[in-house]
Design goal:
The chain has eight helices and seven strands; from the N terminus they run βββααβααβαβαααβ. It has helices spanning 83-86, 90-94, 108-125, 129-144, 180-183, 198-208, 220-224, 231-244, and strands at residues 37-42, 70-73, 81-82, 103-104, 152-158, 188-197, 251-257. A three-stranded mixed sheet has the order 5-6-7. Strands 1-2 form a two-stranded antiparallel sheet. The longest helix has 18 residues, at 108-125. It is globular, with a radius of gyration of 19 Å. The protein starts with 36 loop residues before the first strand and ends in a 55-residue tail after the last strand.
Length: 312
Amino acid sequence: AVSWGLLVALSCLHGTAGLWGEAGAPAADPPARGCAVRGTCVASPVCPCDVGTPGCEPGGERCPFPGAGAPCVDDSGAPPSKASEVAPSIVEACGGDWAPDDEVCCTDDQLSSLRDRLATAEGLLGRCPACMANFRRFWCAFTCAADQSSFVRVSNSSTCDPAAHPGPNKGKGGGCEGTVAASEDREVAQRVRVNVDKAYAEALFESCRSVTVAATGQRVVDVAFGGAQDAAAFLHYIGSAAYLSGQSPMLMSFTLSPPSLAAPEAPAGPPRGADEPWGGALRANSTGCDVDDEELGCLCGDCEAACPAAPP
């Protein structure tokens, strides 16, 4: 089986993963612009043990950051930055939906990691260009959207203490020395909750659900996404599998939220209470896999919607 860990940890951004129920209040205004996480705080894993073995739980004392690229919590209140100043490669990484003048919550170091991992994802999802385009848009919006704090909540964070984890931050078993977290005394995100627009999540899943692995004919969702049968299960697997196997730096738990239930602003400052209502919802452009487009359209074998109707 192909490991989902090859696909997740894309944005790089303790507990067990799950889906929270829908919550919130009707929105009167657009979500406020602001960041929940921004920049890489711990570049290499801090986990000098085999993840998942006794005493080596991801997010635990011995293994606080099991995957590379743990992001800094952003509780500064600083506004998003112009992409040309902090993320000049955004168009290369995320495509024409973005522009150098856009305000963003990501940095170029995050985009470098995102670009590499999306290239790996394309090896599985690229047979259906619309699916891959939607997958890319999802992670770019999660990582960079200027209203990120309206749909992302940090629920667990930690420092990276060189006294507890000595040694330079290099390789799997590295320590905290030389990290942004240690040098700037920053909190590092370990677990986040993410509100995703329900209709958007369903469109993303539908565009990818029938994509197959060329060598075997199996569906990619069966091979690499835990056999997900719907958008909720798809996102649940994305958020938990790589973290629990030590291939992602933080746990992501997703909520599907109808737009009518999206509140305009997130509460400021981590850690945030698990029961507090918050947020807008992550959404981006999406393209159906049956689109009549030479570059994005998918074949019948990878897109059920593109198959001709059965004769009566």
